[in-house]
Every structure is written in C-alpha cells, then in structure tokens.
C-alpha cells in the first residue's frame, strides 16, 4: 500500500532532520539557568512511589521519570531528555500526517515547522511533564485515524486503540480526543464507522490498558475527581469563551493560527479536503467541551497538530493553484513561521537570564500572567515556578543541622505543598536533609512516611495554627526568594516539637487535593 505523497518525499530524510533538530534544540537548552520546575520535583517524588495512579495524574509520567533517572541520573538534562525526544517524535509524525493527507514535500516541511515553533510546544517539550507525552500520543493517535481514512483499512483502529490506551495512562484528557473523533465520524459519515468490529476492538484495547488505573481510582476513593473539582472551583482562573479562543493564537503562534484556520476551512469548504472533515469536526467538538468544562487554554494544544497538517496541505494546494507575480506565498509562510518562532521562543521557555527576560517581556509589552488564582511578580508563573527551590532546601538543611543531635535523628520536614516537599526530597542527594511529608495531593496518600511528629521542621503557615497542634513552636528562619511566585516568598521556617496527639489522628485532616 503506497501512501499519498510518498513518491517525492525524499524518503524520511527531511522529517528526520527536522525532528532531530527539534530534539537537539530542547536537549541543548534543557539545563537552563532558572532551575528545576515545581511539577518536575513532584514527578521525581512520584517516581519514588511507583503505583498504578496518583491523585492528579495516571502513572506513565512517573514510570518514565523512573526510567530516566535509572538510566541517566537526576540532572535537568536527564529528566528532560524524554520530553525532548517527544518533541522530535511529534514533529516527525505531524510531517507524516501531512503527507498521508496527500501533501507533498512543502506541506510536510511546513507542518513540521509549525509544530517545532509553536510557543506552547516549545514550552511543554522543554521540561518534564505529562503534557509533552500527551502531545506526542495525541499526534500518534491522529496519524492512525488519518491512515485509516486514507487507506480505508479498518485495522488501523487497532493502532488507535493501543495509542489511546497508553495515552489514558498518561493523561485522562485523551478522552477528549476520543470524544471529538466519535463526534467527527458521526457528523461526517453517520453510523457506518461504528458498525465495524475493528472500532469496538480498539475501544476494548484502550479500556483494557486503562483498567489498572481505573481500579486504582476505585480503591482510593476516586481522588482525581476530587482533585479536578477542587482545582476548577478554587484554583484555576475563570476564563471566558472569547478569552479561551484568543489565547489559542498566542499558544499556536500567529502564523500557525492562520494556517490552522485555513486547515479548518479546507476540511469544511474544499471538495478535496472533505475527506478530512472528521478531524475538523473533532477539533470543534473538543474546543466546545473544553470551554464548557472551563479548561485551561493549553488543554487544547495536543489537538493542534491535526490542524497544522491539514492546514499545511491547504496552503500547498493554494500556492499551487494561485501564482501572483512576485509573490512566493509558500516560502514567505515558512519564513514567517521561523521568524515569529524565534521572537516568541523566549516567552515560552527560559532561554534568557532572568533580568534579560524581564526586559524582553517589557519591550514586547507582555505582562506576566498565570492561569491560576494567584498573584504574580515580575515573571509569569510558568517561569517563576522554577526559582528558589535549591535555596529553600539549603535553608532547611541549615535549620536541620542546627538542631541538637537527638532532634536531628527524629526530625522530618513538612511542606505545605508538593513543590516545597518535592524540593526537600530532590535535593536530599546533595544536602543533609531529613525526609519530607505533605498533605498535598499524592504526598498525602503516601502518608507520614515514618515521621513521628516529635520534631517537625515546618515550611510556612501561621504560628498560631501550629501551636494548636504542637507543645512548642519556634520560628528559626525566614525564607525569601526573588522572582519566585509571591505566595512562596517570605515563608517562616518553624521547628515544632511534641505533637499533642498521634500523627495517625492528625493526618486525615492534612489532606488537600488541588
């Protein structure tokens, strides 16, 4: 079976070069001067407690983190290697999707560049998180659907089922893609695709792969549902539908947004593009669901590659059919993607020193922001969440070292969130620190971890609240951090002794899923 566009695609050389260049960019910039990201600290902690699930995510990211650490160590380059490889893989697959859609060399190269330079992808492939693998797995799933449509071979549903099942073990949002594709198929072809046994086999495969995590959720009282409810009501910043849609332009990049709109138009207006209409309907359905669910704008980003691919094919068709004197639309589009990508990259990834970054954002008129209900300082939360963690661990290590020897042996550290606790656990390999505990998300599920409550170093909180639980509470230090999130700055460090009741009685009240 010959793929459309195979005859002139120079085999896999061009996709391979663009994919390798994207991966090398992320590897070369992975050991940034800003430091480790808050969520990376948490995923490292999760990799120390391998399980079939966690309060706020399925198990795949913890397992991949465990492998990365076992193979390469705990450095930032090591932790961020798999996301960098996911970046290259996503570029490679998007090019193949464009060519499966009948695109030639130009369409493939444009689709690859759009993917490589999308600001949200530069951001999410630049650090360890579920999002990097989510984007790759959505793209792989879309490839299987495009191959199915192009070939008419329903056996591609099996590939989709395997990919979707793995994707669900990474992030439950893979359900959005499945829902969108069902809507797209239904609106484009009626019930016919769903009468095929391969479709139902795909669902069974995906469900079987997801089953271990589902059982974990049942056994642990559906913690992810509680987490999602609390995050929506208390943590995430409300956003209007218009703001949600406008934000997509910044996340894609302005040129990519135009190409994506061209792709949607190609699906719904062009006779040649109508076979890809299921993808257009899928993107629309996913967008509507995320708006109704009050999802964060970047939640839509894994679906971009389907529009980048079909949009690149549309641009290629248009430039082939319309030739105005002196206008090289195809080359100009690629050039604009590259130029705008370079200008926007420092807004998506910490490529510049802090002071230079602040001046650059001020020059562009980009205000620091957050998608949560939190105050920000001079830099956006995505950047601020990388600052100050080692300094916090070093200060706690000093506090611990100053304790009398008997207290040092019994001491543990309590962090009010998984960033604080994760920093203590991560830097224990280089600093003399006791283990950390927390009531935040999966840290609460892991329990007191041997902490007796006799001597606890507490990061933050109010002294009066601590005195209600301990016989004595002494503030011994004050942690400050420049340009970190304001709610992490000016944190008192307490040494609390003599828990008034057993830690087993106190622990249920420490839980907060958000």
Distance between the termini: 49 Å
- Low-confidence stretches are 1-9
Which class do the helix and strand fractions yield? alpha/beta
Radius of gyration: 25 Å
- Specify the helix fraction band: 55-70%
Strand count, sense and barrel status of the largest sheet are:
5 strands, mixed
The proportion of strand residues reads 5-15%
Q: Secondary-structure element sequence?
A: HHHHHHHHHHHHHHHHHHHHHEHEHEHEEH
Number of strands: 5
Tell me the overall shape.
Answer: globular
Number of domains: 3
Number of separate helices: 25
Characterization of this structure:
With 514 residues, the protein is an alpha/beta fold. It folds into three domains: 13-348, no CATH class; 354-384, no CATH class; 389-510, no CATH class. The protein has 25 helices and five strands. The protein has a five-stranded mixed β-sheet. Strand 1, helix 22 (418-426) and strand 2 (436-438) form a beta-alpha-beta unit. Helix 5 (81-100) runs antiparallel to helix 6 (105-117). The radius of gyration is 25 Å and the shape is globular.
Task: Give the helices and strands, then pairings.
Elements: H1 13-28, H2 38-47, H3 60-72, H4 76-79, H5 81-100, H6 105-117, H7 119-124, H8 130-151, H9 156-168, H10 174-189, H11 197-219, H12 223-235, H13 241-252, H14 254-269, H15 277-292, H16 304-321, H17 329-348, H18 354-364, H19 381-384, H20 389-401, H21 405-410, E1 411-415, H22 418-426, E2 436-438, H23 442-445, E3 455-459, H24 463-467, E4 470-479, E5 491-499, H25 503-506
Parallel strand pairs: 1-2, 1-3
Antiparallel strand pairs: 3-5, 4-5
Helix pairs in contact: 1-5, 1-6, 2-3, 2-22, 5-6, 5-8, 5-16, 6-16, 6-17, 8-9, 9-11, 10-15, 13-14, 14-15, 14-16, 20-22
